Amino acid sequence: MVAESASYSASASQIHPRCNIAEAAGLALGAVALIELFGTCIDLFDCIAIGRSFDHDSKILSVKLDVERALLLYWSEKIGLFKRDAEERFSQLKETPLIGKLLQEIHTLLSDGDRLRQQYGLEPIQDSDSRLKIVFSKLRIKALNEEVNHRKSLKSRSKDTPKDITPLKRTLWAIHDKNKFENLVQDLSYFVKSLVRLLPSVAVSGNKQMIQNDLEGVRDEEYLNLLTKATQSTQLYFTRLTRDRLDFLQTTTEKRILEALWFRTMDDRKEKVEDAHPETFHWALNPGHKMPWDSLPDFLESASGIYWIRGKPGCGKSTLMKYLFGEEKTSALLRAWAGGTSFTLASFFFWYYQEESHLVLAPKLVGLGIAFSHTAQAWLSR
């Protein structure tokens, strides 16, 4: 993000947080008009569309815009813009004219079609059902719209509505030049930070709880990954909280998958297989002489693929598998094969007869195994 001492693009240089308040006196607004102007600014953020077909960098830039909108919403809540005593407080607040001026600048940035096209690299597009509808701070925006609609009923009794704020036009814009669009994000960030700096008591209060509340409404992991990348160099607290949300969702997803696969009798077969006599299968992991089959220890320690064990019904295949699964030497050989990386040792014993729960689960387990195999192969080939 551009440092405070750096030069800003043309739009941002039109105003500075320490500009003479007299310059903004012509835009002295009451709370009702400020709320309406603020609501229009928030709506204008949503006019920049991002389609599913857009590249990764464009999506990150779009999410950066979402972050600025969220910070603007947090600011409005911290200054009490929607509280019942707002009219009285803002009429006495010396910073009110400058707040109106800064909001006007944000409005102009997002509504001036020529500037959006020429200076910020956006192009008008037609509305499309394929465009992404993901919205951060969705519940806050909904509450804001309800508040604005309520306040609009007071508009006819208010004489302080600025005449140079035009009604919102639902023109959709798409990113055409990513470098220019980055300037728009930086300029918006400048004005949002300027609003926060106007009231030091507001600036020192944190956004952590509000960010956490908003993140709870987002379940899309792709969007959260984009949010992590969009904030990692400028809003580190945002990044940390987003990663916490991702970790929670992934843990929850794993738990839901395991719960979906679990059934009451899933361990019955394994428990009813008799334990092997200590010496019965000693030869399996400790072959003392050359056997007419491939060495199982060598396979566990260094090979890949599938090791098939077959035999006649009742010859002890299940007993052998239960023995191998429980032996410490099996785990030791697999640790040597894994070479220091973690691995999972799992088992499932099917009944021979057609129990309904096993018949229902078997295709799922096969499909899950195939999907896991394909995913593992793709990962290993990278």
Automatic annotation (TrEMBL):
Residues 301-356 form the Nephrocystin 3-like N-terminal domain. InterPro entries: HeLo_dom, HeLo_sf, NPHP3-like_N. Residues 26-227 form the Prion-inhibition and propagation HeLo domain. Keywords: Repeat. Pfam families: HeLo, NPHP3_N. It comes from the Eukaryota. This is Prion-inhibition and propagation HeLo domain-containing protein. It comes from Cladophialophora chaetospira. The lineage of its organism: Eukaryota, Fungi, Dikarya, Ascomycota, Pezizomycotina.
